């Protein structure tokens, strides 16, 4: 015999007594619901709440008003303009100075201190015989023949450095010139025409030809002339015209 499934057995029950059981349960549920509904109207009356619990109703007071808050707009601060400095009436653009070329150095002009023949030349390497001293020696200048009392002139512009009496060369005048040059005039007359510190120009009279140089007394009347460049004796004829 074939066994029925669960669904088939439930269907048989519903087809038989089960139908009446379900109908009974539905009627019972409706009756219970109606009972509780009627009981609620009898005990609470109309408007009574079905479920318990206190209800609090807050009514607003007619005198209590919420103050109205109005936002006051604060005006933004205005910027105060800064005063501008007025241009000074005296302020003016300074003119640009044009560079000026440096003046060219003045070229020294030389002249012969006396006019005459060179009787003894410049000699530092070759010994020359000295008639007065009777020996052979160097000669650091030149001897220019000239009569006693002949005016002696400054070779070029300069300043008198010293005036003195030399034991061998007699009355001597030393003049400083630009460029480290010095001129020495010896065998002058006892009293020269210049003194130390005097400024002289080319051709200025500084003294006269004399006979005060003992070391050259055996020679003809003459001027002994020396030229010193940066401390070293040089040939005066290299500078004279």
TrEMBL record:
SUPFAM superfamilies: Duplicated hybrid motif. Residues 87-101 have a biased composition (Low complexity). InterPro entries: Cell_wall_metabolism_enzyme, Dup_hybrid_motif, M23ase_b-sheet_dom. Residues 62-101 are annotated as: Disordered. Residues 138-236 form the M23ase beta-sheet core domain. The chain crosses the membrane at residues 20-38. One of its GO terms (molecular function) is metalloendopeptidase activity. The keyword Transmembrane helix applies. Keywords: Membrane, Transmembrane, Transmembrane helix. This is M23ase beta-sheet core domain-containing protein. It comes from bioreactor metagenome.
